[in-house]
Design goal:
alpha/beta; six-stranded parallel beta sheet; elongated
């Protein structure tokens, strides 16, 4: 059964072709895989291949680079073979394509080859190839588009990981999912690999204890663990977690960013009497993020929270070059937050 088309992202809102989820792509004469998130793009392209191969195991797969393109290659690999096997052509680097590829690809849209599926991968990193994208989105060639937007926010990573387990029909406890996302907050590729490892290795439901057993070392040294322990007022634990993180090669810049993010979330939630769902919808968070921020606010007041946010802003400037000792700046920030003490000179 073909997947249900979903609403296109804003940047492709004027597209005349079906917009498909990267989790459930389907073949078409032209499949445009757009957007910067490589993990999702790789899944989409692999999904198209698997779909076609399940229909016919004799599928021929060819790869072309649009930025290092030999004239005539597209027509050569899409043309029917002697035995008429289906063909899949994967084209990368469309965002930096050569003039030769751009010209031939636009001409190809006017007369796609029977039995051929051409996947065009465009990261959106440049406007190069826009004429080709516009033609595909206008419906020339009978294509579909698979959007792969960037996964940047914590809520995006949470949704991504949750989707991994839902797609595999594997249950994971909410605390376990949050722990896993926090452990891989800086790398979606590694988060995806961690999800797949748990899905493959764990026969039963995945609990927080299972995640800690697999990734405990990483969880203990994550920036969010440092932030959590400091915000909870556990000064000794916060310093230990910080030193472990630094010893493991953690960069002070993203660590300060993680602490600042949690403080800003607390500030957005503080003082509101709305339900978690209503507040989450209004400020652009998830229900669980609102609940977590409200728990984090225990022991904080407006003055201490404002002081901590100011301290995070100063530490952010210092670790980005405003101080000769970024580690000292980070340790001082953790001290301020964990002890609710003034920032100092």
């Amino acid at each position: 059964m073909a997947p249900t088309p979903r609403r296109a992202p804003a940047k492709a809102a004027r597209s005349a072709i079906p917009q498909l989820s990267w989790r459930s792509p389907q073949p078409a004469p032209i499949v445009l895989v757009s957007g910067p998130e490589d993990v999702c793009a790789e899944r989409a392209i692999a999904g198209v291949r698997d779909y076609l191969r399940a229909e016919d195991a004799s599928l021929e797969v060819s790869d072309l680079r649009a930025d290092d393109y030999a004239a005539g290659s597209l027509l050569a690999v899409t043309s029917p073979s002697l035995f008429g096997e289906p063909r899949l052509v994967r084209v990368t680097g469309v965002e930096k394509c050569s003039d030769a590829f751009l010209s031939e690809a636009i001409s190809y849209l006017a007369m796609p080859q029977d039995g051929a599926t051409v996947v065009l991968r465009h990261t959106g990193a440049s406007v190069r190839g826009k004429k080709l994208l516009d033609a595909v989105r206008a419906g020339e060639g009978g294509g579909v588009e698979v959007a792969c937007p960037a996964i940047k926010r914590d809520s995006d990573r949470y949704d991504f990981a949750a989707g991994e387990f839902q797609a595999a029909r594997k249950r994971i406890a909410a605390p376990a999912l949050r722990t896993l996302v926090s452990a891989f907050a800086d790398d979606v590729t590694e988060l995806a690999a961690a999800c797949q490892q748990l899905i493959a290795d764990v026969p039963d439901d995945i609990t927080e204890q299972v995640v800690e057993r697999y990734y405990g070392g990483r969880v203990e040294t994550s920036a969010f663990t440092v932030a959590d322990t400091a915000i909870a007022g556990r000064y000794g634990d916060a310093l230990i977690a910080l030193r472990h993180a630094l010893a493991s090669g953690a960069d002070p810049v993203p660590m300060v960013a993680a602490i600042a993010l949690k403080l800003r979330t607390m500030a957005r939630v503080a003082g509101s009497r709305e339900s978690s769902g209503a507040l989450a919808a209004r400020v652009g968070l998830k229900d669980w993020q609102v609940d977590r921020a409200r728990r984090d606010l225990t022991g904080w007041n407006e003055a201490s929270l404002g002081m901590a946010i100011q301290a995070a802003a100063r530490a952010d400037a210092e670790v980005k070059g405003g101080s000769r000792d970024s580690v000292f700046s980070l340790e001082r920030l953790v001290t301020v937050i964990a002890t609710r003490a003034p920032y100092g000179g």
